Amino acid sequence: MEGNKRLLALDVFRGITVAFMIIVNNPGSWNTTYSLLKHSEWNGCTPTDLVFPFFMFIVGAAMWYSHKKFGHRLSTALTLKILKRALIIYLIGLSLTAYSVTSLDITKLRLMGVLPRIALAYGIVAFIVLLADIKWIPAITGMILLLYWGILIYFGGDAPLTLEGNFVRKFDIAVLGINHIPVFHGVTYDQTGLLSTLPSLANVLLGFLAGRLIDVTEKKTKAAVRLILWGIAGIVAALLWDRFFPINKPLWTSSFVLYTCGFASAFFGSLLWIIDVKGLSVWSKPFMIFGLNPLFLYVVAGVLSTTLSLISVNMSSGESITLGNLIFSKCFTPIAGPYMASLLYAIVFMLICWMVGWILYRKNVIIKI
């Protein structure tokens, strides 16, 4: 977030989200991971499923403050800034993918993913909120969610909401090419693909409205209460919609958007009340470390995780094992049961990334794009 004064609750919200994102992405073993730290296989939503949509919501909230210094008016300078930022985020995501598969063969490289989705959603929403009157943003958000629902049902055939039959899969294969789509649960499907990026625009738009609400509301207590009430309303609406359009992260269904944004809004409102209204912020300082350099620390975590999986160590038994698995089996498994050991590994991994952030914090370095 940019501006004369940072909104502490937003930095802490971002920091908590990044910290949890690193933990759930880096268990000691995927075979011994607590169910709450795994994604839902298809329909449903676990705490882990909230992480990515939370971050999209935060991107939107921060966007309000970022555009504020430009008077929320589209200009050549702001246009170039948006395009540059979106391009850099996308290329960083593509580079992480290339490193993870140790290949620069663009003909087979996955073109979408977490950072590419953030890049596209950020870029598109940035222009929507600058070109459209603020009073139309809720209607635009609703139209996006209804349009996506209609696309999936109308073009989905006899099994529109299944892994094999959904139109998202068909669209992405047709547009991106099958060589650029990963395998998900044995099926060629990108759960952070191109078409399913459409409803994720709503996550960013709703986050933008949340950021605006806080900024234009004189009393932060009132803003916090409204965010919590909006969140509850979103969750209830999502649960009602779930009967017709299931809450589903891989498809990023419209009900999933309302559900996750509901929790994001309620959580954000709670943090605003605790930190910025009541001034109870001492506990939150460790999360500020992640909140100040979220993208850089996410990249650090990705590079470190991939490096640990790429380095092989030859054991005395003749077996070859990755460095990450060696550390897990020798340092964590002996001191705890398999599930707790896996969680401890993830926490230590997160703390190592946190130390990198702490060094940047001590040097007053904030890496911006």
Keywords, please?
369 residues; two-stranded antiparallel ribbon; 13 helices; 4 strands; 3% strand
Structural account:
It is a single chain. By secondary structure, the chain is mainly α. 63% of the residues lie in helices and 3% in strands. It is built from 13 helices and four strands. It has helices at 8-25, 51-68, 76-100, 114-131, 137-155, 167-176, 197-216, 220-241, 254-277, 285-292, 294-310, 323-332, 338-362, and strands at 183-184, 187-188, 312-314, 320-322. Helix 10 crosses helix 13 (338-362). The radius of gyration is 21 Å and the shape is globular.
Helix tally?
13
> Whole-number radius of gyration?
21 Å
Indicate the proportion of strand residues: under 5%
Output mean pLDDT.
94
Physical arrangement of strands within the biggest beta sheet: 1-2
The total beta strand count reads 4
Encode the helix/strand succession as letters. HHHHHHEEHHHHHEEHH
Shape: globular
Distance from N terminus to C terminus (CA atoms, Å) equals 11 Å
Q: How many strands, what sense, and barrel or not for the largest sheet?
A: 2 strands, antiparallel
Helical content (DSSP H or I, runs of 4+): 55-70%
Give the low-pLDDT segments.
none
The helix-and-strand class reads mainly alpha
